[in-house]
């Protein structure tokens, strides 16, 4: 990689041209990705892509006048100190606010590049153009705000807020809730069966830990492989799988941890079991609340489904362990 200070004017212009071309493609990728979910916000990024194409055209004209038609094969990735752009495949289905922050970072980096390059330029025409572009990049954030204000009217913003909430539910709440339910409920039977069969805390903890991690791995892969998100808009399958797997494991670990109470304590088994039952109670009510809050399920119905179901699974585990 080359140091920025070692770049010639020709190389600076070549880097600028390739950067503007790449940024334009990134903005168009954002626009295409947002077109279905947020069509009005997509127009903002289309406008910004057009601005970047205009910059590239001006840079190319100056370059051809100074150095001819051939561009040296150098990009910003070849220069030390440049922030690297995310690969395009990692920008798919990003939340709208995350995309806007990404754009702010891109514009800030571009402005700093042009400002530094302008200070080092010896040719008057190159210095003038780079300075102008630095000022324009500085105002690009204001352009985005202006375009947002012109395109995103209050009713459009309200509609996009609804879409954002729906996407949040699809991409995070649903897989997380599915994992939390499975981890909290499915591990009850093996945990309490082991507890009442052995009356030993450490062995019970190991069973609960194995059941929680095993269920987390299973649910994570099942969620990731169930839907690639291309048609449903549920986002990255691996992100959903990770969310589901982690929440499944946490759901089981919560009522497993009390069995870390040493067996040497007086009434250690009954103390740990009592704490575990209290944690189960709060877990099931928390799941019922989340279902009512985000899944539009009536609260009493959610309580009936989750709390009653969990109580039955808990009872089954105790009966099998005590048999």
UniProtKB/TrEMBL annotation:
SUPFAM superfamilies reported for this sequence: Ferritin-like
Residue ranges that the Swiss-Prot or TrEMBL entry lists as coiled coil: none
Transmembrane segments: 172-196, 202-225, 237-257, 269-290, 302-322
CDD domains: Ferritin_like_AB (cd01045)
Origin superkingdom: Bacteria
Domain Rubrerythrin diiron-binding: 11-147
A Pfam cross-reference name: Rubrerythrin
Matching Gene3D superfamilies: 1.20.1260.10
GO molecular function, one term: metal ion binding
Name of protein: Rubrerythrin
Lineage of producing organism: Bacteria, Pseudomonadati, Pseudomonadota, Alphaproteobacteria, Hyphomicrobiales
């Amino acid at each position: 990689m080359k140091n920025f200070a070692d770049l010639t004017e020709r190389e600076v212009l070549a880097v600028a041209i390739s950067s503007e071309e790449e940024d334009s493609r990134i903005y168009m990728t954002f626009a295409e990705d947002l077109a279905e979910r947020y069509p009005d916000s997509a127009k903002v990024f289309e406008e910004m892509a057009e601005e970047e194409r205009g910059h590239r055209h001006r840079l190319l004209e100056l370059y051809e006048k100074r150095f001819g038609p051939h561009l040296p094969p150098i990009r910003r990735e070849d220069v030390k100190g440049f922030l690297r752009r995310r690969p395009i495949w990692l920008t798919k289905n990003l939340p709208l606010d995350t995309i806007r922050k990404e754009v702010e970072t891109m514009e800030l980096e571009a402005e700093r590049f042009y400002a530094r390059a302008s200070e080092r330029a010896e040719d008057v025409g190159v210095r003038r153009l780079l300075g102008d572009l630095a000022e324009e990049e500085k105002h690009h954030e204001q352009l985005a705000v202006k375009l947002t204000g012109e395109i995103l009217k209050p009713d459009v913003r309200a509609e996009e807020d609804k879409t954002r909430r729906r996407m949040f539910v699809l991409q995070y709440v649903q897989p997380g809730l599915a994992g939390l339910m499975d981890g909290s409920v499915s591990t009850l039977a093996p945990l309490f069966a082991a507890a009442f069969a052995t009356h030993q805390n450490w062995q019970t903890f190991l069973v609960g830990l194995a059941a929680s991690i095993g269920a987390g791995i299973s649910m994570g892969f099942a969620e990731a492989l169930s839907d690639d998100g291309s048609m449903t808009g549920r986002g990255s399958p691996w992100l959903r799988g990770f969310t589901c797997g982690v929440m499944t494991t946490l759901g089981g670990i919560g009522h497993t941890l009390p069995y870390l109470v040493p067996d040497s304590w007086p009434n250690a088994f009954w103390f740990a079991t009592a704490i575990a039952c209290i944690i189960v109670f709060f877990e099931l009510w928390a799941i019922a609340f989340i279902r009512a809050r985000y899944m539009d399920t009536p609260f009493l119905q959610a309580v009936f489904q989750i709390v009653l179901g969990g109580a039955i699974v808990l009872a089954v585990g105790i009966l099998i362990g005590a048999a």
